[in-house]
Amino acid sequence: MLDRTQVSARTAWHGVILWRKRDDNDIEILCRWDRLRKQWDLPKGGQKEGECAWATARRELHEETDVWIGWREAGEWMWVSSAGNPIVEPRSERSAWVVTQLKEGDEQKDCSYATWFTRADCEERLRPDHWRLLRQLSWFADDSRVPSLAVIS
């Protein structure tokens, strides 16, 4: 089960690195256009009072991309720090990311400010600190290590 620890103030930021496999077995990452910064980035936002990290990540993904992901079982997700290192839970991190695959049952609507980027697109167009985060994920950096739904670390 995902961590449901409550927080008392909006002091943390969490997001989702949502990926999917393409027909050619490459992967794509869901990115969104930040109109204020005028750049592509990964969906992420501030944690509200009383909200757990998982709820923050899911809410921000939905608000920023119009994608609503369902609940995930163990093995279908992992937490990583902003440096891309796996972490057990996000309580000690000011910023953490849920990494998971788009799966059947997730709601995805057409959204003019969100799109799927290939690895090459991410390198060219994604906000630099978010690109560095993706490069730290071994399966993202190595074409031969595309993860399966059950094994994403």
Can you put this structure into words, describing what you see?
- The chain has helices spanning 53-65, 119-125, 128-136, 138-141, and strands at residues 13-21, 27-34, 39-41, 44-46, 67-68, 77-81, 86-87, 95-101, 107-108, 114-118.
- The protein has 153 residues and is α+β, with helices and mostly antiparallel strands.
- It has a single domain, classed as Nucleoside Triphosphate Pyrophosphohydrolase, CATH 3.90.79.10.
- The strands form 2 sheets. Strands 1, 2, 3, 4, 6, 7, 8 and 10 form an 8-stranded mixed sheet that branches. Strands 5-9 form a two-stranded antiparallel ribbon.
- A hairpin with a 5-residue loop joins strand 1 (13-21) and strand 2.
- The chain starts with 12 loop residues before the first strand and ends in a 12-residue tail after the last helix.
- 31% of the residues are buried.
- Mean pLDDT is 80; it is low at 1-9 and 146-153.
> What is the end-to-end distance?
16 Å
Q: What does the average pLDDT come to?
A: 80
Quote the CATH topology. Answer: Nucleoside Triphosphate Pyrophosphohydrolase
The coarse overall form would be globular
* Main sheet specs: 8 strands, mixed
Class by alpha and beta content: alpha+beta
The CATH class name reads Alpha Beta
Task: State the fourth-level CATH superfamily.
Answer: Nucleoside Triphosphate Pyrophosphohydrolase
Poorly predicted residue ranges: 1-9, 146-153
Could you estimate the helical fraction of the residues in percent?
10-25%
Order of helices and strands: EEEEHEEEEEEHHH
Radius of gyration: 14 Å
